[in-house]
Amino acid sequence: MFRQQAIRSISRRYATASATGTSTGPQARASVPDYALFSERLNLARSTILENKPLTLAQKILYAHLHDVGSMTSAPVAGETYLKLSPDRVAMQDASAQMAILQFMLSGMAQTAVPTSIHCDHLVEAYKGGDLDVARSWQSSREIYEFLQAASQKYGIAFWRPGSGIIHQLVLENYAAPGTLMLGTDSHTPNAGGLGMLAIGVGGADAVDAMAAIPWELKAPGIMGVHLRGKLSAWASPKDVILAVAGKLSVRGGTGFVVEYFGDGVDSLSCTGMATICNMGAEVGATTSVFPYAPSMARYLRATQRTGIAEAADTYRASYLSADTEVVADPSRYYDEVVEIDLAQLEPGYNGPFTPDLHTPRSKMTETTQAEGWTDRVSAALIGSCTNSSYQDLSRAASLARQASSRGLRVAEGTEFLVSPGSEQIRATMERDGIQAAFEGIGATVLANACGPCIGQWNRDAGRAPSRESNSIVSSFNRNFRARNDGNPNTLNFLASPEMVLAAALSGRLSFNPLTDKLRDADGKEFALEPPVGSELPAEGYAAGRDEYKPLLDHQPDRQIPIDPASQRLQSLDAFKPWNGRDFADTRVLVTVQGKCTTDHISAAGKWLKYKGHLENLARNTLIGAANAAMDGAVNLVRNAVPGLTPAEGTIPDVATSYRDAGVPWMVIADYNYGEGSAREHAAMQPRFLGCNMVVARS
């Protein structure tokens, strides 16, 4: 009875929802949200527990999605109260969707309670480029794709095939809607905040809560306001906004906060530019990031065939889709923290290496490269990923490529130039409008519409890769942990805007400053690059792309879901044994982790992505990137503290397995920010599967 009531409540959130009170089934695009209902729920919260206090935008969206405001007796307290929320939508990528679907299969539900989509973007390895890499992924991951497709058909989930695009770009193009609440099984889900959606990255179990009509719990976040003033200069881009914010806040500064942008500078940004900023907000530890509804959002909605949403949102811009006027007038009173950014003073920047918050302004990059001893020569320049693959990003970078091409210049010798389109729609549009030709004209390889090198799916074969040697790459990605992109711990990855990446590709040097330095053309003559120019949206509209990359919307409730008991890629789940209610005893410290320990250290991606649906096999990579302070910082090496057990000294997974099989509980001691990054669910499940009782961390 409770679940049916919850489903009926969910269905009312869409003006075009089914009148039967059940999910409307797989969707190609989002329905028009029921803003009248959101306003009604928000006003109820305002008049009761909130005592009509002025609210920020993030608070409005959260309180409009409270599962049962009538049961609350007081206003939520940030950092203390757990909110029970009813999300509107779930989106999953193919690596994390495996575990989520395996869990949802245990729910007994015939169909997801909220609109849900699966996007196959993580398992495509970048190698030869484009369709060739998609075809290779079908050879290597057919079992996973067929499992996810069958589950999508059975449970009424929209299924986006490999090659269709990156989850966050596809959500922005099709499913994001201002003022709604979405859970996504990827840490960069906040990308949709660029379209005014409160989009939060979660693990599979949290997504399953929403899919199964169970209220989702979130500790009430603080609200950090970022005040944007002015307008970006010619060489600066939205990417430079978040690079600067990350430099100010550090990878920990946003933890426990929703980052909410406001100010006159907002209206100068494109919708996709705001998405870039929100996307990389994950790197400061924020719960999510969001922008108020702006004219550029309306333009983007109309350009992506969602005029109905734009028209409805226009009506509620002031009352629901932006902070109250009192908040904007006196931000320090209503935001828990306020960060000031003058867009006009912002210069292009580079963040890295090895951490996304080490910020160096372009004007200081040359001297810093020399002072730090960073490898100046750029071995690879990479544009794209979910962070920077919009039409505006690519058209601005292409304007620089055309300048170089007109001078007979190609990318620097020894520099590989790779471009990852965010979606089939983007790829088709850049092909039609000559952007792809501009990149290929200077030596680019256009990769598949997938994550690729950004998440370590990059086959840098022996003919191209600098082996284990120190080398520098520049990318427009969002994350740059050590060894993340190519498995080489000596690859220095610097994060920058697509425009700066293109400049690095042409010069082949970190030290090259396109604002002040000159290149040499094919005749040896010096010339300076003119500032990049591009379009917010394509003048001729977006090209539709190929039909095979449109979503599968084929609901078959009787569909069987294949899982081979002998599979090395998929494994049905068994429940963990519940806690027995007694204190832990005789727990051994397996490893004392030295320094940062991200999810890349705990549950590495790259070649391990293929085991995301097989917990037993994936557990073999548990903590293999962790440095052990008890072994002088040795990576993935521990001593066995139990006499008679073997191995006496070995890898962390091997000794952990030895403990588990002998019934010896163990624990981890860690420093700050343990678990920063993606794959947090696997990073929790794997140690538990191997017998870990607890992780004690500074934070």
UniProtKB/TrEMBL annotation:
This is Aconitate hydratase. It comes from Kickxella alabastrina.
